[in-house]
Specification:
The structure holds two protein chains of two kinds. Chain A is of the alpha/beta class. In chain A, the strands form two sheets. Chain A has an eight-stranded mixed beta sheet with strand order 6-7-8-3-9-10-12-11, with helices on both faces. In chain A, strands 2-1-4-5 form a four-stranded antiparallel beta sheet. In chain A, helix 3 packs across helix 4. Chain B is flat and about 75 Å long. The chains are: A alpha/beta, B mainly alpha. At the A-B interface, helix 2 and helix 3 of A face helix 8 of B.
């Protein structure tokens, strides 16, 4: 199936000016390529500062990419127009911040309906607002429709945020860590809601998270980012069961697993986690592969040249010199 | 929210005083004519510089004019300048400051340059020059000058606030929804600045009233008009202070001070609304806590 939203080799550099006037460039995202297909959920995983949110905002046309292009329905998208937002909606991480405390639930949804569907008739608008609230399971509707955000819990707010995005009837939903600020007990409901929207409406979903377990639960494909670059991707089971890139391995091993003993990981990497160091500065990223300062398997070539994309027959791909000669080329 | 605002005694008192003076400004001439029956310009030659008495409740001036009638008549001029100057100043501050903070970049540079320009301009000398240039400075002119030259500080504050509010997630979220900038500014950002704008407006009223009085005191005003400023100026010219005619200059001065106090008190209330930490416990709450504490220590 043709991808509905696609990023091709997009990079985003931010120029930072310090107080004394010297400038430096933060290379937040570099050469990222991702394609979203209808009815498919892609998870974008990586630690804090790996460029996940920047990529999501690039896809939402909140930032203009420094290089590369964003394609919607196969055509290059220019600028953040209302037509673009009719197809692509973004859900923010923090449901406590993404609703204006001065507006009622109804206002948020009615604005979306008015802007994108020109619903002027009051009764019709009311009906559709109620319908939206029902879809995100905020029932009984009349209990929520006139509430202010501060009268709702985190999960209820995030449902309002999702309902607002759905009111537009988009083709693509970008979820920027949509459950990370929510209480653990309601995260599963949220994931199921997203899953239902995918199956019922054929939405394409980009699910950004640092939590591998939820990515595994929800998504079809996984893309792993490290320090602004994509390091590995492919069908979720393959990536999780058989990670090719050492960073993916580290990431998967770092999620708690009761079945594993304490020192298994040290054995795997020949070092304790603490000794593996910190992610690099994006102002002055390491040359070659960005993971090489932390990589236990680093070779000379890793320090000088960025690894090319290696594709495997099962749809998995990685940027790593270790696998350079294994793939299809 | 509105009910909260009226809960404190400060706000109630402040609003009451302001309302009193507004009513005085509106109905002043009518009161003078029908209730007191005294023309503020009429010279009572039998009572020159007379202290308060039954005939003239607040005494008379050097020229035998009734001070109470003049104070009542003067309210209109002072309140008019105060409100008009505050409205103009606040409006310009909002129109310059909020877009500067919201749009950033080039718009911000341009508007901020304008703000800085007005910020470093010495307002009082400027008013003197403009007033001297414009022949015949009526109340309109003074209000316009005060408003047009007094907005820069407020614009600076609003710019900083708009800068912070417009980068918050809910503004970005509504932008993602495709809201036009106009709606984002007026429906998402501006409502969060109402506290600041209200404070600015109140401050503008005090500034306008003071500026009018100050300019009249310096002799820059329509000599025919009666305002608190012209009253104080006349009193000063006739050395009322030296000669002990306190009833001549105290009433207009007190009125100006009262308006200033009232505006400040209302401002406290607005502050408390936006910053609950400043709120004082109401007496009923204090009482309840005390009884609870007493009950607790007995047990």
């Amino acid at each position: 199936m043709a991808p509905v939203l696609e990023a091709r080799d997009v990079s985003k550099h931010f120029t930072v000016r310090s107080a004394v006037g010297s400038t430096s460039v933060v290379r937040a995202v570099e050469d990222a390529t991702v394609a979203l297909e209808p009815g498919e959920i892609v998870a974008l995983v990586g630690e804090s500062g790996s460029g996940k949110t920047t990529l999501a905002r690039l896809l939402a046309r909140f930032y203009e990419p420094t290089t590369g292009e964003i394609r919607l329905d196969g055509a290059p998208a220019n600028g953040a127009t209302r037509a673009y937002h009719r197809d692509v909606q973004l859900i923010f991480q923090d449901p406590f911040g993404s609703l204006n405390p001065l507006h009622r639930v109804r206002y948020n949804l009615e604005r979306a309906l008015r802007l994108h569907h020109g619903v002027r008739d009051k009764a019709e608008r009311n009906r559709r607002v109620e319908e939206l609230l029902e879809r995100v399971s905020l029932t009984p509707v009349e209990q929520f429709i006139d509430k202010f955000p501060h009268e709702l819990s985190g999960g209820q707010r995030q449902r309002v945020v999702i309902a607002r995005a759905l009111a537009v009837e988009p083709k693509v939903l970008l979820g920027d860590e949509p459950i990370s600020m929510l209480d653990v007990s309601i995260r599963l409901e949220m994931l199921n809601l997203l899953n239902r929207l995918r199956t019922e409406d054929g939405l394409a979903l980009l699910y950004i998270t640092h939590d591998i377990a939820s990515a595994r639960y929800l998504c079809d494909r996984i893309v792993v980012m490290y320090a602004g670059r994509m390091v590995e991707g492919g069908p979720k089971e393959d990536v999780i069961a058989n990670p090719r890139h050492p960073y993916t391995r580290l990431l998967i091993e770092s999620s708690p697993d009761p079945a594993r003993a304490v020192d298994d990981r040290a054995e795997l990497f020949g070092a304790e986690a603490g000794e593996l160091g910190e992610p690099p500065s994006l102002i002055d990223p390491p040359a070659g592969c960005r993971f090489h300062p932390r990589c236990p398997f680093a070779m000379d070539v890793c320090r000088t040249e960025a690894p090319p994309r290696t594709e495997f027959p099962n749809g998995q791909w990685t940027h790593c010199w270790l696998h350079e000669d294994e793939g299809e080329g | 929210m509105r009910a909260d605002l009226l809960r404190g005694w400060k706000v109630r008192f402040g609003l009451a005083v302001l309302a009193f003076f507004v009513l005085l400004a509106i109905f002043g001439p009518w009161i003078n004519e029908y209730v007191l029956g005294i023309d503020p310009r009429a010279n009572d030659l039998e009572a020159i510089s007379a202290p308060p008495s039954a005939d003239h409740l607040l005494g008379t001036t050097q020229f035998g004019q009734d001070v109470l009638a003049q104070t009542i008549a003067g309210a209109r001029g002072s309140m008019f300048v105060g409100f008009l100057a505050a409205t103009i100043g606040t409006l310009i501050a909002v129109l310059v400051g909020v877009p500067a903070g919201y749009f950033r970049g080039g718009v911000d540079n341009g508007l901020n340059f304008l703000t800085n320009l007005f910020l470093v301009m010495p307002v009082l000398p400027l008013i003197l020059i403009v007033a001297g240039y414009m022949q015949g400075t009526g109340l309109w002119m003074i209000a316009l000058i005060v408003g047009l030259f007094g907005w820069s500080g407020g614009a600076r504050t609003l710019r900083a606030q708009a800068l912070s509010v417009s980068s918050r997630d809910f503004v970005l979220a509504m932008r993602m929804l495709g809201e036009p900038h106009r709606r984002l500014i007026f429906f998402e950002v501006l409502p969060h600045l109402t506290g600041w704008i209200a404070a600015m407006f109140l401050h503008g009223i005090i500034g306008g009233v003071m500026a009018e009085a100050g300019l009249a005191f310096l002799g820059i005003s329509d000599s025919g008009a009666i305002s608190w400023g012209t009253m104080i100026q006349a009193a000063q010219q006739q050395s009322a202070v030296l000669r002990g005619f306190w009833w001549w200059f105290v009433p207009p001065g007190l009125c100006i001070a009262l308006i200033g106090t009232a505006a400040t008190l209302v401002n406290f209330g607005v502050d408390e609304l936006s910053n609950p930490k400043l709120r004082q416990a109401r007496r009923s709450v204090v009482k309840r806590t005390k009884t609870l504490r007493a009950a607790g220590s007995e047990a």
